Amino acid sequence: MSDTLVLDRIQTSLTRLRLPRMGEILEQVVQMAEHGSKSYLSFLDDLLEEEVGYREQRRVETSLKLSGLPFIKSIDEFDFTFQPKLDRQKVLSLFDLTFIQQKGNVIFLGPPGVGKTHLAVSLALKACQAGLSIYFTTMEDLIGKLKKDHNAERKGRGRGYNKSAVVIVDEVGYTPIDREECNLFFRFIANR
């Protein structure tokens, strides 16, 4: 069987198996393997590594689109010199994400414009890169959703704010909430 027929058959199989990245780079990797006298295992490892990286990148991009984050910024972009009283080591220790396994909460308190949202978004980005689902909302929007679900007796089952591993509630305390709304928020936090 000619190399062209084999290559065509492999491309067809990769398409049927939904391995798009491997299909895109197959010929290039084959040429590199032939010229570099790579072993069969190294050749296969190169192909699989590319596919895994491609899928992981797509997963992160999709999660970030669905999360509702207002922007994407990493902790590396945070200017700790702007907030000299902030304990840098304590903040950076949050990025090991152990609080998630311990079902803990992280609360960033402070006046407007000090970087609370940036830190929360950075933490969400890290969680997403670690394979966890994230959901971003404002307190006002969350209260509206909780009230709607409570009134409709749906109790929010299957909603992003209940299913996600990490939920960021921004702008807490910016708008007043009444006793019922406070109770709904408390139950939401307790259930999480």
Protein described:
The chain has 192 residues and is mostly helical. It has two domains: 3-67, no CATH class; 75-191, Rossmann fold. The chain contains nine helices and two strands; from the N terminus they run ααααααβααβα. A two-stranded parallel ribbon has the order 1-2. Helix 1 runs antiparallel to helix 2 (20-36). The protein is elongated, with a radius of gyration of 23 Å. It starts with a helix and ends with a helix. The mean pLDDT is 88.
**How do the SSEs run, as a string of H and E?**
HHHHHHEHHEH
Alpha-beta content class: mainly alpha
Q: Write the CATH architecture name of the largest domain.
A: 3-Layer(aba) Sandwich
Distance between the termini: 59 Å
Morphology = elongated
Strand share of the residues? 5-15%
Counting DSSP H or I runs of 4 or more residues, the number of helices is 9
Given this structure, which CATH class of the largest domain is correct? Alpha Beta
Task: Let me know the number of strands.
Answer: 2
Helix amount, in percent?
Answer: 55-70%
- Oligomer category: single chain
